[in-house]
Amino acid sequence: MQYLAGVPEHRTSTGLNNRKLLMWAFLGSDVMFFGSLITTHLIYRGQSLTGPAEEILNIPVTSISTFVLLMSSLAMVLALAAIQRGNIRGMRLWLSATAVLGMIFIGFQMFEFYEFAHLGLTPRTNLFGSTFLVMTGFHGAHVTFGVFWLWSLVFLSFKGKVRQDTSLDVEIAGLYWHFVDIVWIVIFGVVYLIGAYGVEASDAAHAVAGMLS
Amino acid sequence: MATTARVGILQRPLAPTGVWSWITTVDHKRIGILYGVTALIMFLIGGLEALAIRAQLATSDANVISAETFNALFTMHGTTMVFMVVMPAGAAFFNFLIPLMIGARDVAFPRLNAFSYWLFLFGTVLMNVSFLAGAAPDSGWFGYAPLTANTFTPSASVDYWVLGLQVLGLGTLIAGFNFVVTILNLRAPGMTLMRMPVFVWMTLIISFLIIFAFPVLTIALTLLMFDRFFGTNFFAMAAGADPLLWQHFFWIFGHPEVYILILPAMGIVSDVLPTFARKPLFGYATVVFAGAAIAFLGFGVWAHHMFTVGLGAWATGAFAVATMTIAVPTGVKIFNWMATLYGGSLRFQTPMLFALGFILMFMLGGLSGVMHASVPVDTQQQDSYFVVAHFHYVLFGGSVFGLMAGIYYWFPKFTGRMLREGIGKVHFWIMLIGFNLTFMPMHVLGVLGMPRRIYTYSADQGWDLLNGIVSAGAFIIAISLLVFLYNVWTSLRNNPRVTTTNPWGASTLEWSIPNPPPVYNFAVVPTVRSLHPLWDEDANPIDPPALPPVDARAIHMPSPSYWPVVLAGAITLLAAGLLIWKQASLPGLVIMMASGVLMLYSLFRFAVEPATEPVHGHGAHGAAAHH
Amino acid sequence: MATIHDHAAEHGRHPGVRQYITIAVILGIITLIEVGIFFLEITSWLMAMILLTLSLSKFALVVGYFMHLKFDDKRFMALFVIPMIAMVSIAVVLLAVFGNLTR
């Protein structure tokens, strides 16, 4: 993101790069965004009055899309490793792979939403539909933005604007991409697996309460 | 794409003066002035709303305005004063002053800074357009859902409120990121964290509060937006939603917000008092850590706004204790300020008067506030005028008095001219008297049982006399503001330029450079060796006197840019398109798609544009050289 | 872990390609275990805790290695972990207040 530069890059007081610090501050802030959405979903868990809820979640299919997103993170670090060694073609290849895997993930999500609508679950159906679809949709929007970002980097690399000396651009995009991945790790674990498990959250809470007392 | 870059309006603007130079500016000082002027205009609008409210409540069974108008006015008065006056006024100070105080030439991301301002302005305009559309928000400034859900407020009023706040809030968030990075990373050599002026510290803390608290508001607003526009069920009681969800989210944001509003004033006062007492701030480190403690604890006290909703004994008790705890660091600060005054050689010039007014009025507000930590007392006072009195003592007696101290103190830094001392003192006393006449009787009214947000009351309640005094006080405050405006006008017109760089004899770095500062702020980036660089100047000169004259044209400053205002405009248009979509789906859809494309395009251009135009850099900021 | 760290120290701040692939394989295996546990259909809080722990370990691996937080400046860690702690605390309090933990 040399091209995103603010003030010319000189020595900073902390020794930390301005844009990298900005990205980490943003990710800290984004924790609060996703945290609020996931909390809303958990608060309304089991409160839906009508329509399908957790039982509708398709774990096998989502396991595959989760794996796809995990592998996109691998492709992302490989892209960074490539550009840090000055291998622009390698970077381009891995960045494209990351973006394509991200697009496949989005495809899975569209398929999931379509299936849910088919089974009678839309954001308007019940509380589960509202919280689940807005939360995962917000995550999908993050992935989509990331895909745009990655293709922009590929595009700019052809104009010679992504180089070994500007590998920070790729690193920062990578931070964003991995963050989107870890948010999905949490959603897959907490919302899909535990959520659809039939394990009442209360059981877990009793366990915690038992340990504390 | 690339060819359009240098054609017509899209050519990078390089002229140093004129309207376009302001619209495309990335200079933190100009952006600070834009924030300040906007906040002042909104202060007058919000004040007029308050006057209409007080005209209606001056007597019993009055008919000055209708109940509906009354609801819209108190809603917009609250929303305006919080989001469009006190917050941007704070932003005006930290935009203008932070780089000067830490010895930097600009903020870390100058174009993002301009982007923040335009989002703030457009969000403000979007929300206030609702008056013209005859659908002003009327559900209270904290917009409690489900009252604000479609079922109970079908009109477009809440739509304006939600979307206006979203746009404005995005600007605030981005400003928060910018100042975190600026303060941490752009400090001059030797400016360690514990050598930063208290105002810089408070700004850093506020910025952290913004980036961690605003997302919660954004999500709450998003959920409400989805409910209102797309028929989701987050606040639909019929679908089993919980009526307390909004309240929790709003106050998880809302309590840190309270500190976002007061900490700038605390920072200003902590810098004004030492200057006018001619001695260093008592317990600098304590004041800093107290500020940090307030911010940290601020995330754990939100439910004290909800004691009457029935949270259960444990939750209520825990939040009551947390609330009492947060009073401790606040009290510590007040003792520090008083100890700063003790034994100092005090000069009672206008900034000092406002700073002292701040301490006294804020203390009263704090005392009535900590009463609410006691659950039985809070239950008694909930939604009464006692609460109105409390938060006005904190927000007006605290924030506004503190900001006024800042305006009088730094006016020569902003404009190169002092404000008139005599008129300033008249302003202070009228404001102090008017303020106390307005808000002191409200305590009594609250205890007598007058609920807030009622548009009229009957004569047999016996509230007439006190309400009459309150309304008279409100108009006295209005007079004091006219005096202030006259002071600004006449001072700008008639006062001579200040000749010294440090007219108050202050100790901080911003007073080491000319008034107003040149575009590049510091000809040579200073090296700081103490907490009071200007007071220790003899021992540790900031700029060596033997310094060779600097060619200002050799200093590279970021170039102006269209993209911040275009991108902010596209985002606002997207929000406006959503509003229109609800009334007429096709035109709304077209506007949203067009603005979405414009948004992505301008975002890309924003991102790939170099901060400093290669052909530029030296020349256009040659204007700087003439200062 | 130790070898990964040594390697990172050798090559400056970042682990190498082999380590990245190793991490990815571990991530994949953990996901498989998670899904396997899910299909065991043993309804108990213990399984929920195990799932939560597995998710957290995936989280830690991605943040620590792919985002380099393990090797990077500790102040980045603070900037990320502090809101994390705040948000988790707020979420737990909210779930308790809304009765989700006792329902």
Report on the architecture of this protein.
The complex is a heterotrimer of chains A (213), B (627) and C (103). By secondary structure, chain A is mainly α. Chain A has helices at 18-43, 59-84, 88-118, 127-158, 167-196, 201-212. Chain A has one domain (59-212): Cytochrome c oxidase, subunit III, four-helix bundle (Four Helix Bundle (Hemerythrin (Met), subunit A)). Chain A is elongated. Helix content of chain B is 64%, strand content 0%. Chain B has helices at residues 19-23, 28-57, 67-102, 110-132, 157-185, 198-230, 245-277, 284-297, 313-341, 350-371, 375-381, 385-415, 421-448, 464-494, 563-583, 585-608, 622-625. In chain B, helix 3 (67-102) crosses helix 7. The longest helix of chain B has 36 residues, at 67-102. Residues 1-9, 544-548 and 616-627 of chain B have low confidence and may be disordered. By secondary structure, chain C is an all-alpha fold. Chain C folds into 2 domains: 2-72; 73-103. Helices cover 77% and strands 0% of the residues of chain C. Chain C has helices at 2-10, 17-40, 45-66, 74-97. In chain C, helix 2 (17-40) runs antiparallel to helix 3. The longest helix of chain C has 24 residues, at 17-40. Chain C is flat, with a radius of gyration of 17 Å. The model of chain C is unreliable at 1-11 (pLDDT under 50). Chains A and C meet through helix 1, helix 2, helix 5 and helix 6 of A and helix 2, helix 3 and helix 4 of C.
Per CATH, the superfamily of chain B is Cytochrome c oxidase-like, subunit I domain
- Per CATH, the architecture of chain A is Up-down Bundle
Biggest sheet of chain B: strands, sense, closure? none
What's the tally of helices of chain A? 6
Beta content of chain B: under 5%
* Terminal Cα span of chain A: 51 Å
Mean pLDDT of chain B: 91
Mean pLDDT of chain A: 88
Identify the CATH class of chain A. Mainly Alpha
Determine the CATH topology of chain A.
Four Helix Bundle (Hemerythrin (Met), subunit A)
As for the CATH topology of chain B, it is Cytochrome C Oxidase, Chain A
User: Which structural class matches the secondary elements of chain A?
Assistant: mainly alpha
Number of strands of chain B: 0
Number of strands of chain A: 0
> Which CATH architecture of chain B?
Up-down Bundle
Structural class of chain B: mainly alpha
Using only CA atoms, what is the Rg of chain B? 25 Å
Spell the H/E element sequence of chain B.
Answer: HHHHHHHHHHHHHHHHH
Put simply, the count of helices of chain B is: 17
Principal-axis shape of chain B: globular
